[in-house]
Design brief:
It contains 8 helices and 10 strands. With 241 residues, it is an alpha/beta fold. The chain has one domain: Rossmann fold, CATH 3.40.50.300.
């Protein structure tokens, strides 16, 4: 059974007396442990698809089964519980609380989950160490580089042991070298820790870190292909420099 299964997902919005269709009958499956990149031009519907996959929004019609459970008609509270247990998010803008230390930012999902303080601290420290920020745990976001802030965001995404990580343009605010370091980290999360990674990006070089690339055009799947030659390490991007 697929971890994620979409059947004929439609998303539309009322606009000037008619319904504007953003997604036009998307059907796809994603298995546990896959690393999938979703690509598409601006306005193609890839971010809308990401929001539905991540239980941040509901489809207008169609079926969405997440880990065998239909979620398309769940209440907002039920979706929030699903997100807290099964999903971690990493965004282009990092989305860190500016007046809160790195470790406190990482603790936040566990606060919402009702985890005891001592366990929160232990798990947050472990998560930050796993992304290479052992020496930066008590720094504020403005004391960290963009790449370090994104590492904090990744630590926050994995701290609840969510099996699925959604990354929405996670390298959009980073330079090339730091982008590759962040993608290497996602690769390790996927290959060594078994996390399912779903990445939205408009950059072909970034998408090539995935096992599979789904291209969305005008709200429909244009192509869905396995990556023949994945990027695995920094040398792949810098080979010609």
């Amino acid at each position: 059974m697929a971890l994620i299964e979409l059947k004929n997902i439609v998303k539309s919005y009322p606009l000037d007396g008619f319904n504007l269709k953003i997604l036009k009958g998307i059907s796809l499956e994603i298995n546990q442990g896959e690393f999938v990149a979703i690509m598409g031009p601006s306005g193609s519907g890839k971010s809308t698809l990401m929001n539905i996959l991540g239980c941040l929004d509901k489809p207008t019609s169609g079926k969405y089964a997440l880990d065998g459970v239909n979620v398309e008609k769940m209440t907002n509270d039920q979706l929030a519980e699903i997100r807290n247990k099964k999903i971690g998010f990493v965004f282009q803008g990092f989305n860190l609380l500016s007046r809160t230390t790195a470790i406190e930012n990482v603790e936040l999902p566990m606060v919402y989950a009702g985890v005891a303080e001592a366990e929160r601290l232990e798990r947050a420290e472990k998560a930050l160490k796993s992304v290479g920020l052992k020496e930066r745990m008590y720094h504020m976001p403005n004391q960290l580089s963009g790449g370090q802030q994104q590492r904090v965001a990744i630590a926050r995404a994995i701290v609840n042991n969510a099996p699925i990580i959604f990354a929405d343009e996670p390298t959009g605010n980073l330079d090339t070298k730091m982008s590759v370091e962040i993608m290497d980290l996602f690769t390790k999360l996927n290959k060594e820790m078994g996390r399912t990674i779903i990445l939205v990006t408009h950059e072909e070089d970034i998408a090539l870190f995935a096992d599979r690339i789904i291209k969305i055009v005008d709200g429909e799947i244009h192509s869905d292909e396995k990556v023949k030659k994945r990027k695995h390490a920094q040398k792949d991007l810098f080979a010609g420099e």
